[in-house]
Amino acid sequence: MTTTGSSNSWPAMSAGTASSPAGRGEPLLEISGLCVDYGFADDAVHAVVDADLVLHRGEVLGLAGESGSGKSTFAYAITRLLRAPGVITGGRVLFHYSPDAIAPAARSSLDLLDAGPEQLRALRWNRIAVVLQSAMHALNPVLSVGAQLTDVLRAHRRDMDRAARRARAGQLLELVGIPADRLGNYPHELSGGMRQRVMIAMALALEPQIVIMDEPTTALDVVTQREILEELMDLRDRLGFAILFITHDLSLLIEIADTIAVMYAGRIIETAGARQLYRAPRHPYSLGLLRSFPALHGPHQRMTGIGGSPPDMRQLPAGCVFHPRCPHAFGKCREDAPPLMRLRTSGRAVACWLHEPAAATPAELALPEPAAGPPERTLPEAAPPVVSATTAQQTAMTIQSPRSGS
Ligand SMILES: Nc1ncnc2c1ncn2[C@@H]1O[C@H](COP(=O)(O)OP(=O)(O)OP(=O)(O)O)[C@@H](O)[C@H]1O
Ligand code: SF4
Ligand SMILES: [Mg+2]
What we know:
Blueprint: E1 3-5, E2 27-38, E3 45-56, E4 60-64, H1 71-78, E5 86-97, E6 108-111, H2 117-123, E7 128-131, H3 145-156, H4 162-175, H5 192-204, E8 210-214, H6 222-239, E9 242-247, H7 250-256, E10 259-264, E11 267-273, H8 274-279, H9 284-290, E12 341-342, E13 349-350, E14 360-362, H10 389-399
Parallel strand pairs: 4-9, 4-10, 7-8, 8-9
Antiparallel strand pairs: 1-14, 2-3, 2-5, 5-6, 10-11, 11-13, 12-13
Helix pairs in contact: 3-4, 4-10
The structure holds adenosine-5'-triphosphate, iron/sulfur cluster and magnesium ion.
């Protein structure tokens, strides 16, 4: 095995330093030390352990990891949607928001973990919208999509009359590529992709600053998936909201995310810019994930995947939780758990003893930092969207204003 010395130092990471410099604006959501258990005492499953993450204004932050790694639990916890037996046992989720449109410069912060029911009610949908896993099945089957969209507006936009709500609902549908004349359709009359678009339209209805999406396109075929993602990225560019995009599909994140955080057994084990992670992963698990899917462009690469199985969360190994599957594990890995540490040379963060200053880092985990460049392409091209981009753009421009200053 070829090895190279690592020149990184190990400054302890404080809240707000966990994310990559690829972020677009100032921090919007700062998560630090988040811990979530299912159950209590010795029987507790530690589903999220000491997680630090920062979502910046306008950024797409991807959260990747195998099934059961704690991604959804993380999303439920930060939005305070966690249900029993889930318990948040520690941490802070600071939301930095602008109090109103009139004084956009005056910023306030609220720890969502301390927020009361009224504060949460005011924030949800308005400032932070969530598209949960399998959300397209969450539509009410006995109400038309128009009724469901106008319900959201009736609850949160008291100043809108019935005609305005209806018009806005139509605009929202067109915004996500569905003709407004489908407002009268019931969910069963729409395809899976269209139902998912409706859920995204609902999430965008009140112009939130943050949209949290948990596997929003996983149930869809890859072509529909690409259509929706391209529309979503286009909307993000024009409307300026930030996205926390959760998926097990790292190849998808490489295309759409600015920054990627990789989760394993409830821990965030690497954060980096998407291109950095793709071209030069630092954690053996990230490298294993990258070698688990085929590249559709560029030279053929051998798919090796990751040996072994995800750990039983009730019986985690001592030391680094990845060590039973890690091809580079050594003595220390079996005894001490590596914290997520920032690498001074790049500003990115990794939890692996191989990047200690004196460690002999394997060459495959010490590739040079890549230069900035366009997003990597790993998914097939999409078919033309349902409505023309021009129509969708015109619609969006008439109903939305960029939040750049807010
Ligand atoms: N209600 C529950 N009671 C006990 N354990 C739970 C509960 N919900 C989730 N868990 C456990 O918490 C861990 C994290 O689950 P979570 O659903 O957050 O993972 P995930 O990364 O979202 O997985 P997937 O990709 O399959 O959606 C898993 O080990 C799971 O078994
Ligand atoms: S700390 Fe050790 S076991 Fe864990 S990922 Fe790094 S080398 Fe592998
Ligand atoms: Mg999940």
